[in-house]
Amino acid sequence: MSDSKKTLFSFRSIGFIFLLLLLNACKSTQAVKSEPEKPKVEVVESNEPKEEIDSKEETEQVPEEMEFVAPPVNIEEFRAAWIATVANINWPSRNNLSTNAQKQEAIEMLEILEKNNFNAVILQVRPQADALYKSDIEPWSYFLTGKSGKAPEPYYDPLEFWIEESHARGMELHVWLNPYRAHHTTGKEIGEKSIVNTHPELVRELKNGMWWMDPGSKEVQEHSAAVVMDIVKRYDIDGVHFDDYFYPYASYNGKKDFPDEKSWQKYLASGGELSRGDWRRKNVNDFVERIAEDIKAEKSFVKFGISPFGIWRPGFPKGINGMDQYEELYADAKLWLNKGWIDYFTPQLYWPTRQVGQSFPVLLGWWESENVVGRHVWPGINLGLEDKEENKGEIASQILISRGILRDNPGTVHWNIGPLMKNDSLAKSLKNGPYLKNAIVPASPWLDDEAPTTPNFEVKVSSENIQLKWVRDNEDIFRSVVYYRYKDSNWEFKILNLNSATFEIPKVSQEKMLDKIGVTSVDRTGNQSSFKEIKIENLLP
After folding, report:
1. Do the Cβ atoms of 479 and 438 come closer than 8 Å?
2. Neighbours of 78 (CB within 10 A)
3. How many whole angstroms separate alpha carbon 31 and alpha carbon 12?
4. Is the domain of 406 the same as that of 493?
5. Where are the transmembrane segments (predicted)?
6. What is the per-residue pLDDT across 325-358, written as a single tens digit (0 to 9) for each?
7. What is the pLDDT of residues 501-531, one digit of tens each?
8. Are the C-beta atoms of residues 467 and 504 closer than 8 Å to each other?
9. DSSP per position, 71-111
10. Is there a domain that residue 251 lies in?
11. Quick one: 510 exposed, middle or buried, by C-beta within 10 A (0-12, 13-18, 19+)?
């Protein structure tokens, strides 16, 4: 989700995609589930037929420990959208909106995501060493109020608002931070509390007017790490997200080398023996590893994700060409994936499928083949592609390709929410196609593999419907799922959120009687409880 376009030489090849669908680099990261507590609803296990017995008697005889029963269908897929604040790309649409207008825009975006069955938001909260949240470390963002250091009026904390409203809709909220950018060209004046003015020794001016923190400075690493951990400690977030900006793109500095001579000479004076390129990569690697460790030490359930440039190096795999991020951005993204430092890896694969030199399926298959420790690989795709007539249907196709390559843990991150709001045909192609039904975020068993308890429901029966109302009596349960099946039909499901906790199931659908109902709960890291079937005969008069 770069702030400026990155152009690459392209070729076209019709039919290339079909050969590449044979790629299979899937890794299984299925969780080993723990045994749930005794449920409070009248249920029986669904994996074997049971003798018909009285409901109360069955409930009393349920043992304290039972074998885990998997849900009848797999409903896991990560579906996220980036929401950019830099240059007011997405939110807020202008930097002079009132507090109420900012909230209204945020609600509109969340409602569109909910309507289109997304389950995660990646919100940019630190576009240029500033804050779209209450911070004692960095100033309020120019992009929020039109003046660096100025708080919203009337006062509110935008991040708290986004978290609360996202969670109410069953969506994760990931904070997106730029770790090294100190000032963006669209940020207008440099505020008095900007790091450019408070610590000029830590930043470097680039030819295009941006200011960049020096990744080789220990003080910069300490500062950016403190910003990350301040958010992790104080806010109920689900993830921390970095994009592709480590050392800046060469174009930002007029193709000149990054001006880090002082920190480089300091390294050499200390006895450093690495080449300058290896030293720069080590600076970034050390910071990425540190952030991963610090986050887990504070809150083990918070995911750490990075969305690097989509190509690691030209020729990897064969036939791929384009910018070399290893040499230009000094980002060894393959290493981070190989080491498992990050929980989800989102390479920015922003090119059409037919663009052979940057082929979407070839690159995604290669990145997944490098996923040797079984983390999540969820590609970033460019919704703006469908602004061109020749790319109609491209996004739905890329989602389906991703599912084929990432069968165990599918997911996609969409750059950015803007086209989804403006392009009705794009939104319909997703809602009526790959996102027809909702999904839960795939579990991350290396973070947590303990199954939550079975959810509790209030049940009301009418002549036509069975109404289930989720009673949230456990704060660790994030969502719940109702599975139901009509006689001689496939299982269907409905995911319930905090703001949509009630679901009515018709007793008869297309002349078929309701046959089975079951429920699960979902915790913060995507674990589902053991599946429990509710005895329908005990619900009917």
Report:
1. no
2. 25
3. 41
4. no
5. none
6. 999 999 999 999 999 999 999 999 999 999 999 9
7. 999 999 999 999 999 999 999 999 999 999 9
8. yes
9. -SS--B-EEEEEE--GGGSSSSSSTT--HHHHHHHHHHHHH
10. yes
11. exposed
Structure tokens at 22: 């044979």
Asked whether residue 480 falls in the same domain as residue 360, the answer is no
Tell me which of 6-20, 249-263, 264-278 is least confident.
6-20
β partners of residue 485 = 491, 516
Mean pLDDT in residue range 408-430: 96
DSSP code string of 295-322: HHHH-TT-EEEE--BS-SSTTSSTT--S
- The tokens for 538 are 């005990």
- Residue 533 CA to residue 518 CA, distance in Å, equals 4
Instruction: For residue 194, name the pLDDT band (cuts at 50, 70, 90).
Output: very high
Whole domain around residue 64: which residue ranges? Answer: 43-73+447-538
DSSP 391: G
**Cα–Cα dist 299/297, whole Å:** 6
Please name which of 270, 278, 262, 242 lies closest in space to residue 380, comparing C-alpha atoms: 242
Residue 539 pLDDT level (bands cut at 50, 70, 90): confident
CATH number of the domain to which 459 belongs = 2.60.40.10
The structure tokens 């674990």 sit at: 527
Omega cis (within 30) before 152: no
Decide if 379 is inside a domain: yes
Say whether both 68 and 147 belong to one domain: no
CA gap 186, 184 in Å, rounded: 5
pTM, two decimals, is 0.89
Q: How confident is the model at residue 536 (pLDDT cuts 50, 70, 90)?
A: confident
Number of domains observed in the structure of the chain: 2
Query: Any idea how long the chain is?
Result: 541
Per-residue burial over 180-204, b = 16 or more CB atoms within 10 Å of its CB, e = otherwise: bbbbbbbbeebbeebbbeebeebbb
Per-residue tokens: 283: 């600076």
In sequence order, which ranges of 127-194 are alpha helices (DSSP H)? 142-145, 158-168
Return the pLDDT at 1: 54
15 sits in the region (left: phi over 0; alpha: psi -120 to 50; else beta) called: left
Buried-state track 430-451, b at ≥16 Cβ within 10 A, e below 16 = beeebbeebbbbbbbbbbbeeb
The predicted-structure confidence for 48-105, as pLDDT tens digits, reads as follows 333 332 333 333 333 445 689 999 999 999 999 999 999 999 999 999 999 999 999 9
How large is the average pLDDT for residues 230-258?
98
SS3 283: helix
Q: Name the token pair of 400.
A: 């389906």
How far does Cα 21 stand from its chain's mean position?
24
